[in-house]
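pinned: reference chain
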Amino acid sequence: MRKSLVVLGIGVLGAAIYYAPQVQAQGNAAAYTAAQATAGKAAYAQQCASCHGENLDDGEFAPPLKGAAFLQKYGGKAASEVFAVMSGKMPPSSPGSLGGQTYAQVLAYILQSNNIAAGNTELPSDATVLAALIVGQAPAAQGGGPGGGLSPYADKPPAVNRPNPLDKFTAVSDAMLANPPASEWLTWRRTYDDQGFSPLKQIDKSNVGNLRVAWTWSLPSGANEGTPLEHDGVIFANGFGDQIQALDAATGDLLWQYTRQLPKDARPTPKRNMAIYGNKIYMGTSDVHLVALDVKTGKVIWDREVQDYHDGTGLTGGPLAAKGKVMIGTVRGRSTSPQIVAFDAETGKVAWKFHTIPLPGEFGGDSWNGVPYEKRTGASVWTAGSYDPTLGLAFFGVGQTYDTGPLVHPINQPGVTSDALYTDSTLAIDPDTGKLVWHFQHQPNDQWDLDWAFERTLIKLPVNGQNKTAVITSGKQAIYEALEADTGKYLFSIDLGLQNTVTAIDPKTGAKTINRNLVPGDGEVKTVCPHAGGAKSWMPGSYNPNTKTVFVPLVEACMDMIPVGPGGRGSLTSGVRWTLRPRPGTDGKFGRLEAVSLETRKPVWIERHRAPESTGVLSTAGGLVFSGSIDRFIRAYDDATGKTLWEMRLNDVPSDAPIAYSVNGKEYIAVGVGNGGAQAMTFPPLVPELQNPTDRGAEIWVFELPDRAGSARSTRTR
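pinned: its structure tokens
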């Protein structure tokens, strides 16, 4: 096919929409429909006119959207470019909130206002198709509108040659992920082993009190639980509403932005992590897709469905990239079980799928108390997995089920149990094949929503005279357990003393004896500790390999499980709803940061405060521990004593996990804020005096030490 362009509409200003050759082959569809432009006019009047003006060129606060100035800016460019600006930045109060169909309608109205003729086919909202549509060149300038923008009579301002760290960006290899440079934060817990530890020590106990703001960056308004990544001087931030922004990690300048256009019936949800691998960055989406973006430009390389979102299936965690695969787990739907799905990192082709509720005929298929497969729910994967390159195994945690009623009373049939595999389990999976190598169920038949679905930390421990890799994890009960990473053999448990459901743990097998009096479903109120929000929750702890200490963010709270009565809607199908209550005998302190030695298996120190914890933990070689709480504070603690050495109050609740990185020899600490995550929404009734913003002002805060000359750079807020 000749690389000529087919003109589909020409207006009196000389503007046009062109179809590129590959779209021409599909038929000469028009640029938009008149009905689409009419709908866009109404949306424009409501959402855009206050800034751009009623006539698109008479706004006081924004540049014109018709005439020479607009066409000079976008003429000859792909229609996807103007669509990306609209959908990624407009309206300023809630970017991306209108939905792809509405943005396409507004763009149709803009095209109509620029005298581009309507046709019989609607302008699409799909970015790939829009990329094949080209806006025609503008005519010679005849004057500009009063709404703003650069005057067509003005000389073009001299360009500023600003260094772009993406120009020197290097591909991220398996070897780099296995052993990242000290300056980098390449996975959500920095390393494959989920330790959440930084070897940087420029910021230490002696100078952390001098930390000050280096720069801040506003993220899309909404709940934010996404831990940033950093590589080669670039920070990648995952914002609410399915957006990734690449920022200069030293200055906070925007390098590129990607915003996914969700279907109208897909609800935006927070995502907890992304993955960098090769020359791509991978993100899960609220319509349960996995998207691979070019790490230098943010352009979509491939986009694949993970599972159908229409039945309620979702994503909260994110991808794990290893051995040429990108693996991601899903959250329960109404009619489909969650899965861990692996995609080829280069092509996006599905490599394998693992069902976290065993299929009929598989091992564990008879562990659901006779419940038919199509009615089994739960077993969600709430966070990303970890990976051991030596063993070649990926480790995932699996959550509980809310459909607890059919599991309360065993049916006592031969070969049938009510354990409900693989709920509350650790799974070791071969990334090459998707085959389950081993599993360990921490809590069979969980009747309280106290799941074991969080980070699987890999550490070296002495086992029978050998130094072996162990998988360390904790469920909501704040019981840490260690398993041999190669076999899944139980090693030990450490109960941090915040639960009352487990009365004994077998020291050889890890089997738990539960308090049967606390099993709901008999019509009685049950006071259970902890609350279903967790003493330990999804916010990850951190392990310092130098001191062999794990630092754990905790909340001291319990729940009353109250019967709802016949026909009532409960939190669990055993017929109860959980309600928040303080621990018996509380002194009013609910937040708890605890340091536990994995050598002695005993606490090193416990720091308690009023506000419940709301972030994961960062520990560093500088002898520091960073964490945040719902009173909007981020704090640095002495890792040996728990003493508070520095604190800063932020604009909103910190809700991800702090990270440390270094650019040009300078260390930075970064944390994201954005109220509305699970933790920040659960525990505020315990501390009613703490009133946080309702506008959910999500941001990244980045801190630095003063320059050696004694003064810090001026604070940059963007």
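why pinned: The radius of gyration is 27 Å. Residues 1-30, 137-147, 709-718 have pLDDT under 50 and may be disordered.
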